[in-house]
């Protein structure tokens, strides 16, 4: 078993099961769950390593919510005490004053059934967790928080397309977002075989869909693209080798590789990605899969900046809106994590 400072001793040692979010309260414009949208009241806690948290990081930046919703970035290598703020001075989040995200969970509910996950939104006024509903947070940022969006913010969840977006996202979640984890943490050969086959079956269907259109739904970036991107950007770096999803690399699929590069080079996507955090988290925390905790040197990341030519398919990345401005000072990805 790993020690308390050597990663999380459960990862890779227990059968994988994606649990539902225990704290599913919503922050809404009308405050119907008791949590009204308010600038400066909440803090988004994320890890740049986590694909589920990365959705929220991308959405927050695309929508221009940096001033309204502050962000805490946890150390990518958490331990049995949960996500920790060792990247901050004195190992404490400067706003919440806590060392571990578990402290905000405990203030909300002692001994609750479930793990400490990101993304999480914490009420700054009392330090209590509000929600860890990774499936809902970004949808609410796109809709309920619209009164605080920047001028020119894109519509990431356009109402006329929601049924189609929801259907695509459900397939992506089951077979791709969650599928790579089912393959990586499989305890039996048959379990792995089924999960891995489903990952690549879905990726091939997505490749066919994207061969003739720039984005997954409609002609602009939507929530569906954000959710697929956060898995694709990790694929060759960790899922191909670490999770044994190795029928082929993303870089070997012309359509998906170009699609992923197109998004990576779009402001709000690649400028939130920290490959150093991603690689260190998966290889140093999942000790059941990688007991040596050695982080591989590869893959070569320079290809992420190569031309993708997807603009030939048309599409308007931000619709009638505009790209986000420069990354907020203090939130830039360090050079070590960039291509």
List the helices and strands and how they pair.
Blueprint: E1 42-46, H1 51-63, E2 70-73, H2 102-108, E3 120-123, E4 128-131, H3 137-143, H4 162-177, H5 179-184, H6 189-210, H7 223-239, H8 254-264, H9 275-285
Parallel strand pairs: 1-2
Antiparallel strand pairs: 1-3, 3-4
Please write the string of helix (H) and strand (E) elements: EHEHEEHHHHHHH
The average pLDDT value, as a whole number, equals: 94
Residues in β-strands, percent: 5-15%
* Share of helical residues: 25-40%
Helix/sheet category: mainly alpha
Radius of gyration in whole Å, from Cα? 19 Å
Would you report the number of β strands? Answer: 4
Report how far apart the termini are: 34 Å
User: In order across it, which strands form the biggest sheet?
Assistant: 2-1-3-4
Number of helices: 9
Low-confidence stretches: 1-7
How many strands, what sense, and barrel or not for the largest sheet?
4 strands, mixed
Spatial shape: globular
How would you describe the overall organization of this protein?
The protein is mostly helical and 339 residues long. The protein is built from 9 helices and 4 strands; from the N terminus they run E-H-E-H-E-E-H-H-H-H-H-H-H. It has helices spanning 51-63, 102-108, 137-143, 162-177, 179-184, 189-210, 223-239, 254-264, 275-285, and strands at 42-46, 70-73, 120-123, 128-131. Strands 2-1-3-4 form a 4-stranded mixed sheet, sandwiched between helices. Helix 4 (162-177) runs parallel beside helix 7 (223-239).
């Amino acid at each position: 078993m790993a020690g308390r400072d050597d990663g999380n001793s459960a990862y890779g040692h227990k059968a994988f099961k994606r649990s539902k979010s225990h704290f599913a309260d919503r922050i809404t414009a009308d405050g119907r769950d008791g949590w009204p949208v308010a600038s400066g009241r909440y803090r988004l806690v994320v890890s740049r390593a986590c694909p589920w948290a990365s959705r929220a990081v991308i959405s927050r930046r695309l929508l221009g919510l940096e001033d309204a919703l502050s962000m805490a970035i946890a150390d990518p290598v958490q331990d049995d005490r949960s996500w920790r703020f060792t990247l901050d001075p004195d190992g404490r989040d400067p706003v919440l004053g806590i060392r571990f995200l578990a402290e905000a969970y405990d203030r909300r509910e002692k001994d609750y059934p479930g793990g400490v996950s990101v993304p999480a939104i914490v009420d700054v006024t009392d330090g209590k967790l509000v929600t860890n509903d990774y499936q809902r947070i970004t949808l609410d940022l796109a809709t309920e928080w619209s009164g605080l969006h920047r001028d020119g913010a894109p519509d990431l969840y356009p109402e006329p397309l929601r049924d189609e977006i929801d259907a695509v996202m459900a397939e992506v979640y089951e077979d791709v977002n969650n599928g790579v984890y089912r393959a990586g943490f499989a305890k039996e050969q048959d379990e792995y075989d089924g999960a891995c086959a489903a990952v690549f079956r879905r990726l091939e269907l997505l490749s066919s869909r994207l061969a003739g259109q720039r984005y997954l739904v409609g002609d602009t970036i939507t929530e569906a693209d954000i959710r697929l991107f956060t898995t694709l950007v990790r694929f060759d770096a960790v899922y191909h080798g670490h999770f044994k999803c190795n029928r082929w690399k993303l870089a070997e699929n012309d359509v998906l590789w170009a699609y992923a590069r197109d998004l990576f080079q779009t402001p709000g996507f690649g400028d939130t990605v920290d490959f150093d955090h991603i690689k260190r988290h998966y290889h140093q925390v999942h000790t059941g899969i990688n007991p040596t905790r050695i982080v591989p040197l590869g893959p070569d990341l320079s290809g992420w900046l190569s031309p993708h030519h997807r603009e030939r398919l048309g599409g308007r990345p931000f619709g009638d809106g505009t790209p986000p401005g420069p990354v907020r000072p203090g939130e830039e990805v360090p050079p070590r994590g960039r291509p």
